Amino acid sequence: MGISRSRALTFEAHAKVNLCLAIAYPPCDGYHGARSVFQELDLHDVVRVRVEQGVMPQALRTQAGTPVALDCAVDGLDPRDNLVFRAIDRAEQACKVMAVALDTTLVIEVEKHVPAGGGLGGGSSDAAAALKAYAQLTGIDGLDERIIAVARELGADVAFFLHGRTALMGGRGDVFERSLPPLTAPIVLMGSNDGLSTAAVYRAFDEDPVPASDADALARALEEVPSDLERITALCANNLGPAACAADPRIQQRVDAALAHPDVLAALVSGSGSTSFALCADEAAARRFAHDIAPVCDWVRVCGIPPFIA
Q1: What is the pLDDT of residues 160-185, one digit of tens each?
Q2: pLDDT digit string (tens) for 38-57?
Q3: Of the residues 34, 93, 120, 263, which has the fewest C-beta atoms closer than 10 A?
Q4: For every residue of the chain, which 3-state class applies, written as one string?
């Protein structure tokens, strides 16, 4: 079982923003319900997967025994806890099929471009790419219910990235409901080098919950009037945003500066932060705003949608 070098696989693992994130309160059985409109961005990591003959000395072993050589260093993270490795490990357990033969090594290289810990889903997107690679290696449908279950177990963002593009997700944000037309307005990411603890943001939310926004209304607007930017951007919201802003006041300062800027239609936090983003009417407006906001951000990036979405 396995692939030849000529069939090495390459995936673009895109970043995402939550155009609308509606977190339910109170939590049930320790989990918050969530409805969200996700959208992929053209900012992406590159995940390369190939099979090498022999077992590399640095390879990790999955529970099924598959040697995996993972080149995706994350400071302070045990490679076995990396979502990419866990995706392969859990997929093998769920599907009862090894990714490659025991006398070969599955080599996974992740070229990072999506900032970590910022609510952009980079690690989750990499994990979804690993699941897609596993499916191709084994001949299993990439949307097989077992693959979807593994993605949901790994996290809501991973579940979204199996489908990608623009989508409405329900459940705990991990249940795909339907694909949507994309929001074509350019997006300006306003980033921090310091990530936020998702758990800490949720604790702050539970202490002072904010009513959920209406993700379904945004989904309908994207379907019914995709060119009406004023209506669509007015529906973009994130009720987890205030908790993220309380954890890092710089986020609120950037959002406030964006909302006061003449080129910005809407501004909000992506996921649980620390990245916030602004929506602009066109590329020129996005470039002007990015120039003006850069001094108060650690990094700024003007993004669009991936070419395959259009």
Answers
A1: 999 999 999 999 999 999 999 999 99
A2: 999 999 999 999 999 999 99
A3: 93
A4: CCCCHHHCEEEEEEEEEEEEEEECCCCECCECCEEEEEEEEEEEEEEEEEEEECCCCCCEECCCCCEEEEECCCCCCCHHHCHHHHHHHHHHHHHCCCCCCCCEEEEEEEECCCCCCCCCCHHHHHHHHHHHHHHHHHCCCCCCHHHHHHHHHHCHHHHHHHHCCEEEEECECCEEEEECCCCCCCEEEEECCCCCCHHHHHHHHHHCCCCCCCHHHHHHHHHHCCCCHHHHHHCCEECCHHHHHHHCHHHHHHHHHHHCCCCEEEEEECCCCCCEEEEECCHHHHHHHHHHHHHHCCEEEEECCCHHHC
| CA–CA separation, 283 and 307 (whole Å) | 15
Q: Do β-strands 237-238 and 9-23 pair in parallel, antiparallel, or remain unpaired?
A: parallel
Domains defined along the chain, listed by start: 5-179 (3.30.230.10), 187-309 (3.30.70.890)
Task: Provide Rg for the chain, Cα atoms.
Answer: 20
Of the residues 157, 174, 248, 263, only one is catalytic, namely 157
Active-site residue 16, yes or no? yes
